[in-house]
Design a protein that fits this description.
201 residues, alpha/beta, 2 domains, two-stranded parallel sheet
């Protein structure tokens, strides 16, 4: 059986929202059949262009997820990914995984891959779909002013007492865990603004 190397998600690693964009970057789960690496990440390309490296991966799109949820999903995929690499379509120079994935999902899928590989990829599809429909597991985003409006006085007192913006950022930024999924888009800038107000007193 092929070996899978799982790379876990840490914190809010699946949340990236560029200031010029209206939505967070697209996230995905990927499996590299050459190395057996299985991981989750986000697409750093604003244009939505396909990265050349991703032509060698199997990929499933997901929403930004909390750390614990994303890692549980990756763990559930591992045994099926092992089967997929063991019994899936053999890749060569004439068929990259990206191209083969499209072929696997068409009406002739069962004719071009082993039955076990077919079951494995369909099972992974279902696991990802189930996780996607559980919107409570997705990372949420807000502005600092909206999320921390009732903490302004406390934060200013901490700044006056010598607390740094960096330390306060670590305190108030969500860590991406299932219990703390809120990601504040402009937290550092907002804290710096409060620091400036305190200094101008």
């Amino acid at each position: 059986m092929s070996s899978i190397t799982l790379q876990p998600v840490v914190g809010t690693a699946l949340y990236c929202h560029y200031p010029t964009q209206s939505e967070p970057q697209r996230c995905f789960i990927a499996l590299d059949p050459r190395s057996g690496r299985l991981w989750a990440g986000f697409d750093g390309e604003i244009s939505g262009a396909t990265l050349v490296e991703s032509l060698n991966w199997y990929e499933w799109s997901i929403s930004p997820m909390a750390e614990t949820v994303a890692n549980a999903l990756l763990e559930s995929i591992v045994p099926h990914a092992e089967v997929l690499l063991e019994y899936g379509l053999v890749h060569d120079d004439d068929c990259s995984p990206y191209e083969c994935e499209d072929r696997w999902r068409d009406e002739y899928l069962d004719e071009i891959c082993d039955c076990s590989g077919y079951v494995a990829i369909r099972t992974i599809d279902e696991l990802v779909h189930d996780a996607e429909t559980d919107t409570d597991s997705h990372l949420q985003a807000s502005t600092a002013e909206a999320w921390l409006w009732d903490e302004v006085a406390t934060i200013k007192e901490q700044l006056l007492a010598g607390q740094t913006v960096s330390n306060l950022y670590r305190v108030y930024q969500g860590d991406g865990s299932d219990e703390d999924r809120m990601y504040i888009n402009d937290l550092r800038e907002w804290l710096e603004q409060l620091e400036s107000e305190v200094k101008d007193r």
